[in-house]
Amino acid sequence: MDLILDKYGEKKNYKKGEMLFNNGYWPKGVYKILYGKVKIFACGDEGKENIIHIASKSEIIGFRAMLSGLPYKVSAKTLEECCIQYIPKSDFMILMDSNDSFRNKVIVRLSRELGERALFTTTMSQKTVRARLAVSLIQLNDIYHGPISLSRDDLANFIGTATENLIRTLKQFKTEKLIEFKGRTIYIINIDKLNHIGKD
Asked: Helical H runs in the chain?
């Protein structure tokens, strides 16, 4: 799927904090992340963000809304400098109609991601803030391939808690020698104990 898309669209560099698409807008194409990270989020009635996913290198975003024929239900914003390939809707839909292998790969990816997202959301909703943070730090460590460079507000929105609660729990983790800070960057130093906490 990824290699086929490489032949289409154009590449563009984005600065940190740039919007790719907004909730309520009609999709006009899909986005393949070549490098960098993008947060996918929804906003509550009071404007508080709920980060649903952090997309990274090689991920393709925006295709669910396009295939549904409905406006975006979420928004996407860069978390850092990114290079992103934009593939117009016309090219993507031609591939869907003419290439059986591509269409099947899209369906498999969509089904897998929806299943994983539903399971993750259900599991996380039943956990304490402490357990949610442990699980999220492990997940983010995989996404970032090491040190986690994410603002405290974004991290709080990712695990679904107030920033004050997040900061307090981070300090507890630091005291327990599970993590360390260098500036605002988080380093995991005891992933086994975090795994244990995440199972609570």
From this structure: 2-5, 63-68, 89-98, 100-125, 129-144, 152-159, 163-175, 191-198
